[in-house]
Amino acid sequence: MTDSIDVPGLRFRVELDDGQIVEADASTILDPESGGQVPAVVLRMTRARAHVLAHVLEDWSQVAFVFATLRSSCVTERALALTLDSGAAMAGDTGATRCAVRVSDRVTTAQRLAAVAVLKDRERGLPPLQRIAVVDAAARWMNEEAGDELAWALLDAACSDRTTTNHAYVALLGSDGDQ
Fold first, then answer.
1. Residue 73 DSSP symbol
2. Domain residue spans of the chain
């Protein structure tokens, strides 16, 4: 482990033996609780490690759900796990890609992430895990014969207006819309 701390409290960087890097690099991120910018902690890892960590978080979320309390983080951790695995698939990890194909062999990870982004931008009241769940379920429907109508209906039920439904559906179809 290599430790290179510049100024205490301002910068922090640790390189772990297996190639992961954890750092506080003076960047900021929006804190959903306060609504303000706060210091960010950045974790860099290989795509394969991201896939493994996604499974660890997913397993933790399932176990934590059994003992759910008002302070449980299983919902937010599950959203992080699913997104981390999607990122690993987008980066080309074969294991993560196989997991993504289990969701849909017709709708790519990039298309699913684009649809989630549409819902994030246009459906502010829809929590991250629900956005992922709706999009993944719609993607699964699109694998079925005549499933396109059911996918659209599911998106329509989750969206507050038809414009958002259509944008999310087109994102699932892909940029060329010819699927």
1. -
2. 2-44, 46-103, 105-173
